[in-house]
Write a structure and sequence with these properties.
two-stranded antiparallel sheet, two-stranded antiparallel ribbon, mainly alpha
């Protein structure tokens, strides 16, 4: 299903494929889950349990169950809550189709106390994701370049 949507950095409406947008949001959730798991594995010393023991939404649970390598990652309840909060924010993100990085986004989704937890995760695990999960890291870079390209194409059309 294609829908017209206006974005704050663009003057004109652009067409959005809702299926592509849903796939991108699911990918962003998987990426954040992995980044949080990497961060917890290396930096959090509290008692933790395997991410396979937690309940996530359908697409994420499938992702975890199909990848036994992910079962080794352990998080605690605090980071589980943070992941779930991030998933809700991702679902509601009005800019997800063309968004590059959250910190470059015109809308602030997170409260400052949430950002205090999220920023260290992004900074720490962002560097490690390419080594630990190169395919997902590469896919993120490709999505990033495609989003930038989409913005530039639409800005060129506006001029």
């Amino acid at each position: 299903m294609i829908k017209e949507k206006t974005f704050p950095i663009l003057k004109n409406k652009i067409s959005i494929d809702k299926n592509k947008e849903a796939r991108k949001k699911l990918f962003e959730k998987k990426l954040f889950l992995l980044m949080t798991a990497i961060y917890c594995e290396d930096m959090v010393r509290d008692s933790k349990k395997s991410i396979s023991k937690y309940k996530f939404e359908e697409g994420i649970d499938e992702f975890i169950n199909k990848n036994p390598k992910l079962w080794k990652y352990k998080i605690n309840d605090t980071y589980y809550e943070l992941i779930m909060k991030a998933f809700r924010r991702t679902d509601r993100c009005p800019h997800s189709f063309y968004k590059t990085f959250c910190h470059q986004c015109p809308t602030t989704c997170y409260k400052s106390e949430d950002l205090e937890h999220i920023e260290p995760i992004m900074k720490y695990a962002g560097r490690k994701i390419m080594m630990k999960h190169p395919i997902i890291g590469l896919k993120f870079v490709i999505n990033l370049l495609m989003a930038k390209n989409l913005i530039n194409e639409n800005k060129d059309r506006e001029n």
